[in-house]
C-alpha cells in the first residue's frame, strides 16, 4: 500500500471514533477500492459501523467508492457532509469523468486533508506485490516481465500473477512456458471493456489496433495507458485477443469511428476509404456516416451528401435521418422531405434527436423560427447523454445556435451552448456575444480556439473580421482578411455557412477584393434558389450584401438587395425597413423619423450595432445641425442600451471562462500547491499545468501572477 494510504489507515487505527474527511483518488486499478476495504476492516474491528451509500448518521463510517459515477444530487450532499466535518467520510474517485459537482466535492475534501493520490507501482513494489501472491520473492526476470507488461498497475499485477500461478506458468518464482496471456485475464478485460463509456472503449480499441488516435481523459482514467498515451502491453495483447475473432472487414469502420471521436480525422478518412471501396465490407453504413461527418468538418458537406446518395437511405436504416441536415445544407429540399417522410424513427435517444433535428431544420424553410428553435433545442437536450459518442454532420446544439443567430434569439443560443467546450461551440458563443456588443468576450473566446478544421476556421476568420469591423479597427480587419482568404479556399458553400459568408462579403468590400468571394456568393444564390428562397436564410444574407454594397459605394447593387429585402418584409420587417432607410440616406434624403424608426427596429431585432451605424451614417450626411445632434445621440444610445460596455472583460458576461480541467487546475493553484504537486494530483505533467496556467492568464488578461490569483479566487468563489 502506498505511503499516503498507509498514513490514512494509521490515523484511523489511532482514533477510529474521530471525525475524518478524506479523498482517495487515482486511475482505475490503482488500489482505491482496496484502500477502502482496509479502512472498512479497521473501522469494523473498532466497533464502528460502515456504510457504503449516503447516510447522515454520524455514528457510522461512510466509505464511498467510484464517486465519479454518482449523480450531482448525491455529490452535493456528500459535499455538505464534508463541509460540516462531523462525520467519518472517505470518498474514492477516478480523475475522469469530472462533473462540476465532483470538482466542488474534491475541492472541499482537499481542504480538509491532503488527498491520497494512488498511482503506479515502481519495480520494487511490483516485486513485493508478486511475492504476496506467490508466497515467495519472484526472480529478477519475472519481476522485469511483470513490470513491463502491467506498467505497475496494482490490479493488473495481481491479476496477471494469480493467473500465471493458477495455470502452472510459474515455478520457484520463475516464468515457464510461452509468454501468452491466460484466458482468465482476457475474460476479465472483456468485462472491463463492457463497463466503459463507448468513446473510451473505441479509443482503447483503436490504440490496440495501432491507430494513431489522441487519447481522451477517460482513456487515461482507466489506468490502461502509459504516460505517453500508449496501451499497457498486457492490456494491448488482451484487447487484440478479444477482437481477433471479429471479421476483419468490420474493424476498419470501427477504427474510423474511434479515430473520428478522438479527433484524428485523417486516420478516420483513411479507414472509411478502405471500407467504402470494398464491395464485400458489411459495415459500409457506419463507414459512410463517419466519412460524411468528417467531410462536413472539413468543409465538404456536398461530398458527404454524394456518399449518402451512393449508399442509399434504405441501407442506413433508422439512421437515414442523418441525411436530412446534409441534404438541406446543399439545397436538396424535396429529397430531404422524402427521406424525412419515409424514415422510421428508432427508440434510442440518438434516433429521437436525429428526427427532431431534421424536422427543426426543415421548419426554417417551411415553417417558423419558433418551431425550428423548439425542435432543435429539444434535440440538443436529448443528445446530451450520448453526445460525445454521436458522429453527425453537425450536432443539434451548434445548429440551434446557428438558427438563433439568424433570428436574433441570442439567449436561446447561449442557453443551448452552455456546458459545450468544443471549438465549434465556443466560436458560436463568440458570435453571439459579439452580436450583443461584447467585443472583449468575443475576442477572448476566439483566441482560445486553435488547431481548427476548415469549417471552424471559416467561422473563426469571419468572426475576426466582424470584431475588427465593429471595433472600427482597419488594421485588424486587413489582417483578418488575409486569414479569411485562406479559409475560403478550403470550404465550399452550404446553408450553414451563410452567416460567416455574409460577414466576409462586407470585409471583402472593405479591402477592395469582392471578386475573391464572387464564386461562393453565386453558389449561395443557387443554393437559396434551390430551396425556394426561404426568408429565414435569404434575408440575413441580403442584408450583409447590402452592407457590402454600401461599403463599396455601389448604389445599384445596394438597391438590388434592398428590393430583395422588401419581399421579405412580412417575416423580416426590421431589415426591410432599414434597407429602405439606407437607400434614402445614401441618396442624401435624411428623414430623422425614418432613420430613428429603422435604427430602433434593428436594435429590437438583435442588430444594435447595425442600428447605431445607420444612425451614425445618417448623422454624418445630415446638413441640419439639430437633426445631426439628434441622430448622433441615437447612435450613442443604441450602443449602450441593454448592451455591455466594450471594455467589459469576458468574465462579466460569460461567467467562468474556464474548461473543466482549467477549473481543477485553478482550484489547486489558489490552494497553494506547486505545479509538480498539481500534476501529481491530476495525473498530468508539471509542464501541462504550467501551460494551463499560462492560457488562463492570457484569457483573463492578467499582467502579474498575483493578479491571476485574485481573478481565479473571484471566479471560483462566484
Automatic annotation (TrEMBL):
User: CDD domains per the record?
Assistant: LuxR_C_like
What InterPro entries has UniProt attached to this entry?
P-loop_NTPase, Sig_transdc_resp-reg_C-effctor, Tscrpt_reg_LuxR_C, WH-like_DNA-bd_sf
Q: Where do the HTH luxR-type domain residues begin and end?
A: 651-716
Which keywords fit this entry according to its UniProt record? DNA-binding, Transcription, Transcription regulation
Which PANTHER family does the UniProt entry name for this protein? DNA-BINDING TRANSCRIPTIONAL ACTIVATOR DEVR_DOSR
Question: This protein is called what?
Answer: Helix-turn-helix transcriptional regulator
Phylogenetic classification of the source organism: Bacteria, Bacillati, Actinomycetota, Actinomycetes, Pseudonocardiales
Amino acid at each position: 500500500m502506498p505511503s499516503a494510504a498507509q498514513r490514512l489507515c494509521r490515523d484511523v487505527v489511532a482514533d477510529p471514533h474521530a471525525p475524518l474527511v478524506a479523498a482517495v483518488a487515482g486511475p482505475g486499478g490503482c488500489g482505491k477500492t482496496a484502500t477502502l476495504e482496509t479502512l472498512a476492516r479497521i473501522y469494523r474491528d473498532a466497533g464502528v459501523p460502515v456504510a457504503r451509500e449516503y447516510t447522515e448518521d454520524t455514528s457510522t463510517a461512510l466509505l464511498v467508492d467510484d464517486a465519479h459515477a454518482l449523480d450531482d444530487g448525491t455529490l452535493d450532499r456528500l459535499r455538505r457532509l464534508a463541509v460540516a466535518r462531523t462525520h467519518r467520510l472517505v470518498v474514492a474517485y477516478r480523475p475522469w469523468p469530472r462533473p462540476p459537482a465532483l470538482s466542488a466535492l474534491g475541492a472541499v475534501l482537499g481542504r480538509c486533508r491532503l488527498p491520497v493520490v494512488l498511482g503506479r507501482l515502481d519495480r520494487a513494489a511490483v516485486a513485493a506485490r508478486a511475492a504476496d501472491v506467490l508466497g515467495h520473492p519472484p526472480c529478477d526476470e519475472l519481476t522485469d516481465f511483470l513490470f513491463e507488461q502491467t506498467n505497475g498497475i496494482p490490479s493488473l499485477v495481481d491479476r496477471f500473477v494469480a493467473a500465471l500461478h493458477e495455470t502452472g506458468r510459474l515455478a520457484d518464482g520463475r516464468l515457464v512456458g510461452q509468454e501468452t496471456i491466460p484466458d482468465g485475464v482476457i475474460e476479465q478485460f472483456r468485462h472491463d471493456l463492457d463497463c466503459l463509456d463507448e468513446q473510451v472503449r473505441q479509443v482503447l480499441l483503436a490504440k490496440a489496433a495501432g491507430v494513431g488516435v489522441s487519447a481522451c481523459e477517460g482513456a487515461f482514467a482507466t489506468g490502461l495507458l502509459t504516460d505517453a498515451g500508449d496501451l499497457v502491453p498486457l492490456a494491448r495483447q488482451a484487447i487484440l485477443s478479444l477482437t481477433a475473432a471479429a471479421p476483419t472487414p468490420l474493424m476498419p469502420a470501427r477504427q474510423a469511428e474511434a479515430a473520428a471521436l478522438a479527433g484524428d480525422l485523417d486516420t478516420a478518412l483513411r479507414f472509411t476509404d478502405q471500407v467504402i471501396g470494398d464491395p464485400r465490407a458489411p459495415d459500409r453504413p457506419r463507414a459512410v456516416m463517419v466519412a460524411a461527418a468528417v467531410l462536413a468538418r472539413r468543409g465538404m458537406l456536398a461530398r458527404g451528401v454524394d456518399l449518402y446518395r451512393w449508399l442509399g437511405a434504405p441501407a442506413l436504416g433508422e439512421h437515414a435521418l442523418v441525411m436530412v441536415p446534409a441534404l438541406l445544407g446543399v439545397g436538396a429540399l424535396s429529397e430531404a422531405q422524402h427521406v424525412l417522410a419515409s424514415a422510421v424513427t428508432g427508440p434510442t435517444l440518438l434516433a429521437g434527436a436525429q428526427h427532431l433535428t431534421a424536422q427543426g431544420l426543415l421548419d426554417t424553410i417551411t415553417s417558423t423560427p419558433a418551431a425550428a428553435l423548439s425542435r432543435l433545442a429539444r434535440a440538443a437536450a436529448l443528445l446530451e447523454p450520448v453526445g460525445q459518442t454521436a458522429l453527425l454532420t453537425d450536432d443539434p446544439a451548434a445548429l440551434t445556435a446557428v438558427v438563433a443567430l439568424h433570428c436574433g434569439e441570442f439567449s436561446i443560443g447561449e442557453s443551448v451552448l452552455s456546458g459545450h467546450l468544443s471549438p465549434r461551440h465556443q466560436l458560436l458563443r463568440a458570435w453571439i456575444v459579439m452580436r450583443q456588443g461584447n467585443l472583449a468576450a468575443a475576442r477572448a473566446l476566439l483566441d482560445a480556439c486553435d488547431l481548427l478544421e476548415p469549417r471552424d476556421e471559416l467561422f473563426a476568420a469571419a468572426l475576426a473580421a466582424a470584431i475588427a469591423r465593429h471595433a472600427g479597427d482597419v488594421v485588424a480587419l486587413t489582417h483578418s482578411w488575409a486569414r479569411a482568404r485562406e479559409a475560403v479556399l478550403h470550404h465550399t458553400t452550404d446553408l450553414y455557412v451563410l452567416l460567416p459568408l455574409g460577414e466576409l462579403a462586407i470585409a471583402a468590400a472593405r479591402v477592395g477584393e469582392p471578386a475573391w468571394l464572387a464564386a461562393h456568393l453565386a453558389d449561395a444564390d443557387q443554393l437559396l434558389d434551390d430551396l425556394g428562397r426561404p426568408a429565414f436564410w435569404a434575408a440575413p444574407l441580403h442584408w450583409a450584401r447590402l452592407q457590402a454594397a454600401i461599403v463599396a459605394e455601389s448604389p445599384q447593387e445596394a438597391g438590388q438587395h434592398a428590393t430583395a429585402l422588401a419581399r421579405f418584409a412580412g417575416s423580416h420587417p426590421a431589415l426591410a425597413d432599414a434597407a429602405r432607410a439606407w437607400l434614402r440616406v445614401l441618396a442624401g434624403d435624411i428623414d430623422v423619423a425614418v432613420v430613428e424608426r429603422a435604427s430602433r427596429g434593428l436594435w429590437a431585432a438583435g442588430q444594435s450595432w447595425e442600428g447605431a451605424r445607420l444612425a451614425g451614417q445618417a448623422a454624418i450626411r445630415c446638413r441640419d445641425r439639430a437633426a445631426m445632434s439628434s441622430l448622433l445621440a441615437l447612435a450613442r444610445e443604441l450602443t449602450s442600451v441593454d448592451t455591455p460596455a466594450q471594455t467589459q472583460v469576458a468574465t462579466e458576461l460569460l461567467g467562468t471562462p474556464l474548461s473543466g480541467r482549467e477549473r481543477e487546475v485553478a482550484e489547486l493553484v489558489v490552494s497553494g500547491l506547486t505545479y509538480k504537486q498539481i500534476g501529481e494530483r491530476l495525473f498530468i505533467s508539471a509542464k501541462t499545468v504550467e501551460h494551463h496556467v499560462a492560457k488562463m492568464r492570457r484569457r483573463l488578461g492578467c499582467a502579474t501572477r498575483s493578479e491571476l490569483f485574485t481573478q481565479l479566487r473571484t471566479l471560483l468563489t462566484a
